[in-house]
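Let us practice reading a record.
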Amino acid sequence: MALEQAKKYLTEKGYADRIIELEESSATVQLAAEALGVEPGMIAKTMSFLQGEQPVLILTEGTARIDNRKYKDTFHIKAKMIPFEEVEEIIGHAPGGVCPFGVKEGIKVYLDESLKRFDTVYPAAGNDHSAVRLTIEDLENAVDSEGWIDVCKEIEV
């Protein structure tokens, strides 16, 4: 069902032709990178947080880690990830397929600056056997985001 929601959303945005359905699992950054034949950083990892009662998604490059100080400076609240078993109910996609496409109403989405290291990134497309190939410009156009933020630790290249 979540894959269908993401497909519908991406169709409305004009990006349905970019969806990749995989035989292999894409449930983790490493598995997705191997299945797609790309480096792990190119996987646009969607992390889910709760800020009080407000669910928030942050897309980062695949190997990025949240910097708790930057997160608190940006949002004025401590980073609190949504518990694994609650993600699907709150977001609308199960862990391994969480993406910013076709999520439940009222969820805020942010894009992290770490993604800008790459010209093309691959977020999930609603389940753990999918991805969508997007340039950074396409990602900006496809995602109804609150904008760009910088909440990740510096990545050593």
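A brief commentary: The longest strand covers residues 43-51.
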